[in-house]
Specification:
It is built from 5 helices and 2 strands, in the order H-E-H-H-H-H-E. The chain is mostly helical. The chain has a two-stranded antiparallel sheet. Helix 2 crosses helix 5 and helix 3 runs antiparallel to helix 4. The two termini are 38 Å apart.
């Protein structure tokens, strides 16, 4: 395989992961009689309408991707530093081991936060759920 093709595949894969990470949680509808009578296309339009109504009412769609990423990065750095210090102490260089562990843990935590969708704001979920219920749907949960 040519280097150019490999690079294109890598970029396409990274873009796909980025798009997946941006798509937030969606309500899962229980297949009741109403859902079966209106069909999937109408239910998707109703979900979009309820989501828009929740935004217009002032409900935020997420609890903050930035906060999630910062938290995961910090936890990763702390965990990496601790495990790196232990590993470094075994071989006689706890400081270097802690630094390497902190750096690798921070990167791992950052990437984990980047590709993990932030949970939806509970108020937003409640507004969307109520809207869908009023339209005849039963919300089984969010995924």
């Amino acid at each position: 395989m040519r280097a150019e093709t490999r690079c294109q595949m890598l970029v396409a894969g990274a873009l796909s992961l980025a798009m997946l990470s941006c798509s937030g949680p969606q309500p899962i509808l229980y297949p009741n009689a109403h859902l079966q009578s209106v069909g999937e296309d109408t239910s998707k339009n109703d979900i979009a309408g309820c989501r828009e109504m929740a935004k217009e009412a002032g409900a935020s769609t997420g609890s903050g991707k930035g906060g999630t990423m910062v938290g995961r990065t910090a936890v990763g750095a702390g965990t990496g530093a601790a495990s790196g210090a232990v590993g470094g102490a075994i071989v006689g260089s706890a400081g270097t081991g802690a630094a390497v562990g902190a750096a690798s843990g921070a990167v791992f935590g950052f990437l984990g936060g980047l590709f993990t969708p932030a949970p939806p704001d509970p108020t937003y979920v409640n507004v969307v759920n109520r809207c869908l219920t009023e339209r005849g749907y039963e919300v089984a949960g969010w995924k």
